[in-house]
Design brief:
By secondary structure, the protein is mainly alpha-helical. It contains seven helices and two strands.
């Protein structure tokens, strides 16, 4: 089986060869775009791999949690596919993390940020003092009526 490092070296060699063939053509712009896309796929796969191994999960367990197959996880980790947004959300939940894409120059930094155990408990178990926000008024008249009622409550309670 090809390791992450070997696969990346082979891919980088292939991209470097294609870029060096012609730098001023419109075709080279397409090569650069494709290289950036490949870099993103690789970085995403590396982020999934890093988080999965940090959790001590096997690919099969991650696949089960994210409702994927093990070969799909393997392909993703090797940078061979670009997941959809819904799949990224499932992966983030399966990896107990938040997913982040941060633009950096021409590239993008990809990361899974582990949930803080204290924050996770607070998110899953709301306290009895927390109230859900009131729904937004549907019209301007309702918004004005709500503002008037709020002002009256404030005046009454002092």
């Amino acid at each position: 089986m090809v390791s992450h490092a070997q696969w990346k070296l082979a891919r980088d060699r292939k991209v470097a060869e294609s870029i060096s063939e012609g730098e001023d053509s419109a075709e080279s712009a397409e090569r650069v775009r494709r290289r950036l896309e490949l870099d993103l796929a690789w970085d995403l796969g590396q982020a999934v791999y890093d988080r999965r191994t940090a959790l001590g999960l096997a690919q099969t367990e991650l696949a089960r949690r994210a409702r994927m197959s093990q070969p799909q996880v393997s392909k993703l980790e090797l940078g061979g596919s670009m997941p959809t947004v819904p799949l990224l959300a499932r992966l983030a939940r399966a990896l107990d993390a938040d997913f982040s894409l941060t633009p950096l120059g021409e590239g993008v930094r990809v990361s899974f940020i582990p949930h803080d155990p204290a924050c996770t408990e607070a998110r899953t178990e709301p306290s009895s003092t927390e109230r859900s926000p009131a729904p937004a008024p549907a019209s301007a008249a309702e918004a004005e009526a709500e503002a008037d009622a709020s002002a009256e409550r404030t005046a009454a309670t002092g």
